[in-house]
Design a protein that fits this description.
The complex is a heterodimer of chains A (271) and B (345).
Chain A (H helix, E strand, L loop, with lengths): L1 H37 L5 H7 L2 H34 L5 H8 L1 H4 L2 H12 L6 H7 L7 H11 L2 H14 L2 H8 L4 H30 L2 H7 L9 H10 L3 H30 L1
Chain B lengths: L2 E10 L2 E11 L4 E5 L6 H9 L6 E6 L2 E2 L10 E4 L11 H11 L4 H14 L15 H14 L4 E5 L7 H18 L2 E6 L2 H7 L2 E6 L2 E6 L1 H6 L4 H6 L4 E3 L2 E3 L4 E4 L7 E11 L2 E8 L4 E7 H7 L6 E6 L3 E2 L15 E2 L13
Parallel strand pairs in B: 3-8, 3-9, 6-7, 7-8
Antiparallel strand pairs in B: 1-2, 1-4, 4-5, 9-10, 11-12, 13-17, 14-15, 14-17, 15-16, 18-19
Helix pairs in contact in B: 2-3, 2-4, 3-4
Classes of the chains: A mainly alpha (271), B alpha+beta (345).
Chain lengths: 271, 345
C-alpha cells in the first residue's frame, strides 16, 4: 500500500509538473508578458490608445457584434438542439454534421465564401445593390461573419444536457396540464440553463476575438469597420505597441468577465 | 370516471408492444396491470395518459373518447417510476406546478399544496429540493403533485420499482389507504405479483402485448386461465401435463395409488416457511412449501425417499392463451377434485 502510494505520488508530481509547465510556457507566459508590456510605461499609454476615437469606435463595434450575434445564435442554438435531440427528424444526422462546419473550416475561408455571395459579381449582389443595401465592407457583413463562426457553440453545449435530462420531466409537465410552450419555459429551459450559459460564454468569447473572417469582409477601415482585434493588428503594424497591447488586454478582460459573470451567477444559485 | 380501452395496438419498429388490447376499469377502482417486462403494461398505461399514440384502437375516460386529446387536456395524474421530479423547483413548487399552470391565485395554491403535503406526510419539507429527499419521499411528492390538480384518473407506472423493499411495503399500504380515502380511479403498473395482489382490487395480467386474464386476486390464483397466468401469479410445479402449487403438495411417508416417489434434495428454511426440493424418478425437479411443524413431524432429511401427493392439479388444454376475457375456465384433472385441500399434517 505504502510502496504503491510512494511510486504513485512520484509519478503524480511528475505529471503535475509537466501539466503546469505546459500551461505556463504556452499560455500564462505569453499572456503575462502582454500585461507586463502594456503597463510597462504606466497606465497612460494604453488608456490613451483605447480612448482615441478609433479605439472607442472599435470597442463599440465589437460590442455591437456581440449584441447581435450572441442572442441570435443562442435562440438558434437552443432550437436546433431541441430539434436534434427531441424530434429525431429525417436528416438530423446531416444537420448535426453541418453545424460543426464552422469549427472545421478556417475563418478565412468563411470570409471568402461571404465574398462569393455578397461581393461584386456575387449571387446576391445585384438584388442587394438595387435595394441599396451594402453587406461587404460594412457592419452587416461583419455581423454575418461573426454569426457564422460562432454558430456551433450553443448547440454543442446544449445537446448533451438535453440528452441527459431525458423526457420524463417534460412528460410530467404535460400530464399536469402544461402546453409545449409552458413546458419549455418552466421545465426544459431551467433544466438546461447551465449548458446554454456555457455555450453563450463560448459564443461571446469567439465573437469578441474573431479576426480572420471579419478581417476579410470588413476591409478593416479605421473608425468605420474596425473591431477590437482588427484595431490591435493595425496598431501593431503602425508600431504603436502600447495601443496594440492595451486593446489586447481590454479584449482579454471582456472575455474573462463573461466567464466570471457565469461563475458568479452559478455559485450564487448553488449556495 | 371509468376507463375503457378498446382494441389498442402499438408497435415500436418491429416490436409489437400492444396487440389488440381491451380492458375495462370500473369507476373508483384500484386496478393493477401486471406482467413481465416487455409485456406492454407500461405502454398501455402511457397510451391512456396520451404519452404514447396508439396505432389502432381507442381510449375512453368516463365514456368520452380521448384518443385524439393531447396529454395536457386529459386530466390524468401520472406518477413515473423514477419520480420525474422538477429538479430546479422546491417540493412546494413541484406540487403547486399544475395549479400554477391553471392560474390559481397564490393563497389558494399555498393552501392546496400544504393540504396535499400533509396528506403525503411531507409537510415540513416544503422548501427542500428533490435532491435533498429520499427515494420514498420523492415518490410521495410526485404523488402529491399528480393529485394536486384533482385528476379524473390516477396512473402509476411502477411507482415503487426504484425503492428498497421496506419502503416499498410501507408505500403499498399507504397507497391502498389513500385510495380508500380518495376513491379516484387508479391504475398502477407492476411486475411484482405480490405487490399487485396486496394493493389492487382488480388485476389485469399481460404478456407479450396481450391481456391474458383479468379478475380479482382470488380469481386469478384459484382459476388461472392458462399456464402463463398460473405461473405468473404464484409459484408452480410442473408434473407431466399438470401444474400444482407448492403448498398443494402433500408429503407422505407411505405410498398409495395417487403418490409419486421422490427424493429429498435440499431443505431451505425461510423463517416460518420451509422450502423442500425434490427430484422425481424421471428427473423432474419439484418443490413443496411446508410449515415448520409439518417438517418436524415428517423428520425429513436430505437423500430420503418420500412420496408426494399433489392436490389441486390443473392442466390447460392448449398453449394458446384465451382472448383477453378471462372467462374461460381451466380443466381440472385428476378427478377434477378442485375442492381438495392439502391436509394439514
Amino acid at each position: 500500500m505504502s510502496a504503491h502510494s510512494g511510486s504513485g505520488s512520484g509519478s503524480r508530481w511528475g505529471l503535475r509538473f509537466l501539466g503546469l509547465g505546459y500551461v505556463f510556457a504556452l499560455l500564462l507566459l505569453p499572456l503575462g508578458l502582454i500585461f507586463y508590456k502594456t503597463f510597462e510605461h504606466g497606465l497612460a499609454p494604453p488608456i490613451d490608445a483605447i480612448t482615441s476615437p478609433d479605439g472607442l469606435h472599435a470597442l463599440k463595434l465589437t460590442l455591437i457584434m456581440v449584441a447581435i450575434a450572441v442572442p441570435l445564435n443562442t435562440i438558434f442554438g437552443i432550437g436546433c438542439a431541441l430539434l436534434l435531440v427531441r424530434h429525431r427528424v429525417r436528416g438530423s444526422g446531416v444537420i448535426d454534421a453541418i453545424i460543426n462546419l464552422p469549427f472545421a473550416i478556417s475563418p478565412i475561408v468563411i470570409g471568402l465564401s461571404l465574398f462569393l455571395l455578397y461581393g461584386t459579381k456575387g449571387w446576391f449582389e445585384p438584388a442587394l445593390a438595387e435595394a441599396g443595401i451594402k453587406i461587404l465592407f460594412s457592419v452587416p457583413g461583419m455581423v454575418l461573419a461573426s454569426i457564422f463562426v460562432s454558430l456551433p457553440f450553443v448547440v454543442r453545449e446544449t445537446v448533451p444536457v438535453l440528452q441527459e435530462i431525458g423526457t420524463e420531466q417534460e412528460q410530467a409537465a404535460s400530464t399536469l396540464g402544461a402546453n409545449a410552450w409552458q413546458t419549455f419555459w418552466r421545465v426544459t429551459l431551467p433544466a438546461i440553463r447551465w449548458g446554454v450559459a456555457y455555450g453563450v460564454v463560448l459564443t461571446t468569447a469567439r465573437v469578441l476575438g474573431e479576426f480572420g473572417a471579419v478581417s476579410v469582409v470588413s476591409g478593416s477601415i479605421s473608425g468605420q469597420t474596425q473591431t477590437l482585434p482588427l484595431f490591435v493588428e493595425k496598431q501593431y503594424e503602425n508600431f504603436n505597441l502600447p495601443g496594440a497591447f492595451g486593446a489586447s488586454v481590454l479584449l482579454a478582460l471582456l472575455a474573462l468577465s463573461t466567464l466570471l459573470a457565469m461563475n458568479v451567477l452559478k455559485r450564487k444559485e448553488d449556495a | 370516471m371509468g376507463i375503457t380501452v378498446e382494441g389498442a395496438s402499438k408497435s415500436f419498429g418491429d416490436f409489437q408492444a400492444l396487440n389488440d388490447v381491451s380492458i375495462e376499469v370500473p369507476n373508483g377502482s384500484l386496478t393493477a396491470l401486471l406482467g413481465p417486462s416487455g409485456s406492454g403494461k407500461s405502454t398501455l398505461l402511457r397510451a391512456i395518459a396520451g404519452l404514447e399514440t396508439l396505432d389502432a384502437g381507442r381510449v375512453m375516460i368516463d365514456d368520452e373518447d380521448v384518443s385524439k386529446k393531447p396529454t395536457q387536456k386529459r386530466e390524468v395524474g401520472f406518477v413515473f417510476q423514477h419520480y420525474a421530479a422538477f429538479k430546479h423547483m422546491t417540493v412546494f413548487e413541484n406540487v403547486g406546478f399544475g395549479l400554477k399552470i391553471r392560474k390559481w391565485d397564490k393563497a389558494k395554491i399555498s393552501a392546496r399544496v400544504h393540504e396535499l403535503l400533509q396528506l403525503v406526510q411531507l409537510d415540513g419539507l416544503a422548501d427542500r429540493y428533490p435532491s435533498q429527499l429520499s427515494g420514498g419521499q420523492r415518490q410521495r411528492m410526485a404523488l402529491a403533485r399528480a393529485l394536486a390538480v384533482e385528476p379524473q384518473v390516477l396512473l402509476l407506472d411502477e411507482p415503487f420499482g426504484a425503492l428498497d423493499a421496506k419502503v416499498r411495503k410501507d408505500l403499498r399500504t399507504w397507497l391502498r389507504n389513500l385510495h380508500e380515502e380518495m376513491h379516484v380511479t387508479t391504475i398502477f403498473v407492476t411486475h411484482d405479483q405480490e405487490e399487485a395482489m396486496d394493493v389492487a382490487g382488480q388485476l389485469v395480467v399481460m404478456n407479450e402485448g396481450r391481456v391474458e386474464q383479468s379478475g380479482s386476486a382470488d380469481d386469478l390464483y384459484d382459476h388461472p386461465a392458462n399456464e402463463f397466468v398460473m405461473s405468473f401469479v404464484g409459484e408452480v410445479n410442473r408434473l407431466g401435463d399438470g401444474f400444482v402449487r407448492p403448498h398443494d403438495m402433500d408429503v407422505v411417508l407411505d405410498p398409495d395409488e395417487r403418490t409419486e416417489e421422490a427424493m429429498v434434495q435440499r431443505i431451505v428454511a425461510l423463517g416460518f416457511e420451509i422450502r423442500v426440493e425434490f427430484v422425481l424418478a424421471d428427473g423432474t425437479e419439484v418443490w413443496a412449501q411446508l410449515t415448520r411443524a409439518e417438517l418436524q413431524k415428517l423428520e425429513l432429511r436430505q437423500g430420503q425417499i418420500v412420496y408426494l401427493r399433489p392436490g389441486k392439479t390443473k392442466s390447460f388444454s392448449g398453449d394458446s392463451p384465451p382472448d383477453g376475457g378471462g372467462a374461460s375456465t381451466p380443466r381440472d384433472s385428476r378427478g377434477g377434485d378442485d375442492a381438495e385441500v392439502s391436509a394439514a399434517a
